[in-house]
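Dear colleagues,

As part of the handover before I leave the project, I'm documenting each prediction I ran so the next person doesn't have to rerun anything. This entry is a single chain, and its sequence is reproduced below.
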Amino acid sequence: MEFQTISVREFNQYRKRPDAWVIDLRSKEEFEEVHVEGARNIPYENLEVYQKYLPKDKLFILYCDRGSSSLMAARELSRKGYRTVTVVGGIQAVLQNL
């Protein structure tokens, strides 16, 4: 299964989908400081532990700080059958475009 990268503009459309879960892969502290409304926090280093709780019928929109961790996570999850997209530029790009 493939994943795709999406722009901030596409992110704003994707996150309105009823089957979408927005996942913030940054640390708990970074998440508490600022995050996208409605996002769930699963730090990248804990993703493997939590993935068994992620339903495969959802679309996971992943973001991190600048995009590299979410790219790796999207690749890993898509190989295991999850539908994933990753936000180019991470939360830094999102915050610049609010």
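The mean pLDDT is 95. Residues 24 and 41 are 5 Å apart (CA to CA).

All the best with the project,
I.
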